[in-house]
Amino acid sequence: MEDTPTLTLEPNPDLTVVEDQKPRWNLPANRRRGFRSLDSISRYALSLRAPVVLPLVEAFDPAIARLSSVQTLIGAAPFCALVVVQGQKLLFESYARDMAADQRHSIQSISKMPMHLIMGRLIAAGQVDLDNRVRDYLPEIGSGYASATVQQVLDMDVINNFNEDYQDSYALGNKAQDSLGYNREEIAMGWRLPPPGEAEFSGRDFLLSITATETKNPTRDMQYRSPNTEVLAWIAERVSGRSLRELLIDVIEGAGIEGVYHISMDRNGVPVIAGGASLTARDLARYGLIFARGGRSVQGALLGGGPAFIEQTTNGRGTVVGDGCVGVHYSNHCYTNGRWMGHPGFAGQFLMTDPKTQTAIAFFSVLETKDGDQEGYTAEIIAMGEDILGTIDSAEGS
Prior knowledge:
Order of helices and strands: EEHEEHHEEEHHHEEHHHHEEHHEEEEEEH
Number of strands: 17
Mean pLDDT: 95
Radius of gyration: 21 Å
Low-confidence stretches: none
Largest sheet: 9 strands, mixed
């Protein structure tokens, strides 16, 4: 009997960490392609489509195109897409030469915003108390979150040994108190392979491994931690008795998107709501209109916490966002300046939504710097969005 030949296997090249603590798809030279292909690169995934579509009617506003802030950002090398929608009116749309209207793009941490709606609805229903500790809902949670209140987690106001630094090692430290970097979390997200010889783990296994001696933030400064969103999602599942998949279906179907909402999942089938979603720019704007409508779906159903929760979110509370974002707070899982609500995403994404004018602004770009960051870039995008809202204000007042 002939011997069975030994197969030679190789790690998946896109998911292999090749240099600078990054998998191949996220190296600066590959990042632009990677952001448009993350829906096929991630190892486990879920896709959703809406049963009805919110049609957009072209009503282009030339005043938006003339704004110097718009011209600067859409003319810059990182630019991919900008879409401005008011109600059902498509006021502005522009794409880079290598980007198309039907191209999905990773929205990175904008993926976090559904937790504002989901938690708001549970809070309004009396199922979640903002002053309760995480351990009251998740008795098994580790010390990194056990003593933190739900409000702290919603406001990025928790201190623990997780570090959002993208340069931290993706290898496991030797001590429980060693820093756990975002690159470790990407293993659970299915966006990179673990170090050779290490077993794989789920997103909630990762949450359980986060530790702290004190979770209280001694300052008002935002303490940005992506696992916070995953903790909120776990609480939402526990108190509602529904899976995160079901909760997301409510939101995405309520947005009336035209294409596919695609989101990475961990190996246990839990959606990576901290940063795993991909959408077209138009569909991201459609999704943003939920917030512009005060948390209501295209069918009129209330998806969030209602006017009281929005008022609480935008009344100047929360943690203080830095990096030149003057007057911006992180409140109830959103950026807000008291008028608009929104969220950034790694390497140059932003969604801004405005209930006053029922406007949503979706912006995609890809910074090809080493860490996907550039000082003051988010503030520049926010300033452009505020210029656009100012133009809409002027048009409505004329």
